[in-house]
Each structure stands twice: as structure tokens, then as C-alpha cells.
């Protein structure tokens, strides 16, 4: 399968660099570019990318608002990777809470960029789990923890689903969780899907943020 990527960044050099890295891979194709988040929705609808690599800070519509807009208005939306200069950025955390699937540093090495795109498409692992944990420690505590806790209580996770959520929050892949719990990978996939459905989470990233903000998992 060829992964189709849309690049959204107001810096032409950043877009050119990402395009050069990604198009060097036989399984990745850059299908389009935009200079601002305001242009994302029509391009997503016409190009149907699998992944949108989107700058978190742009002049007209930033990556947070663009992420919300895509997820709110596009059926079967693409995975969204926000592109940022600094990982410990409240804007990045805001984009993840809005539904972005992960983030990518502008200074990342080519292999890391390619890995990030492939990983969010596969959806079996959390991208940069330590950084997500640090973001939750820095900014999650400012959220209404009681609201997040009540949502987790209403989810009525089983004991095994709680075990799976803890391991997902630590960044383990489905295969690693299966080995840890001594069950099959398909069983883990089923548990992860159930956790996401019960939490109303789009993907692993949103489930992990919910786990941290509710106090179910400690960032420390």
C-alpha cells in the first residue's frame, strides 16, 4: 500500500524538506501541499490523503483549529501529524487533545520522519510515548481532572482493559502488550478497540491523554 501524504506548512523550505525525505520511500507519496490550515479541508476531500503532516503554528488557521475542522467535517478523516519546532509546546498538546494522532519535530532525522508516518498509519503503537507523557505532565494538570476522571468511570473498563490502557500509555505496541499479558495479538487489538470505544477516543493518543488527565496513569 502506498501511503498518501498532504504537507501543510507556511514555510516552503520545510515542505520541500519533508517532500524530499518522504518521496525517497517507495511506499510513500506526497499528493499535495498547502501553506495554511485554512486550505486543508478542500485538499483532504479532493486528494484523500492517508496522513496530513501539518504545522502547529500558521498565520490564518493553526494546526489545532485545522485538526478540529478536519475531524468535524470530513468523513473517514486522515491521520494527522502536527509538525513542530519544540515538542514541549502547549500548542502541540492542544493539537493532540483536538484529535491529532501524533507530532513530528522539524529537526527530526529522515528515518524518524518516515517512521512517524508509517507508525500513525499502522496505529499499533503510540508515537513518542515519553514526549506525550511529558506533555501531559506539563499541561494536562491544567485541565479539569474531575471531568476526565468521571469520563473514565463512566467508561466501565474491565480489569483487563485497564491493564491494556496502562501498557498503551507506557508506549507498548500491540505485540509487546500481547507478550506482557501472555495473550494473542488479536486479543490485544480487540481490547484496545474496546478501550477506545468506551472512552470515545479517536485513537491511542487520545486514550492515553484521557488516562493521564484523569489521574488513572501518573505522568511521573
TrEMBL record:
The keyword ATP-binding does not apply. Gene3D superfamilies: 3.40.50.2300. SUPFAM superfamilies: C-terminal effector domain of the bipartite response regulators, CheY-like. Coiled coil: none annotated. The keyword DNA-binding applies. It comes from the Bacteria. Residues 150-215 form the HTH luxR-type domain. The modification 4-aspartylphosphate is found at residue 55. Residues 4-121 form the Response regulatory domain. Keywords: DNA-binding, Phosphoprotein, Transcription, Transcription regulation. This is Response regulator.
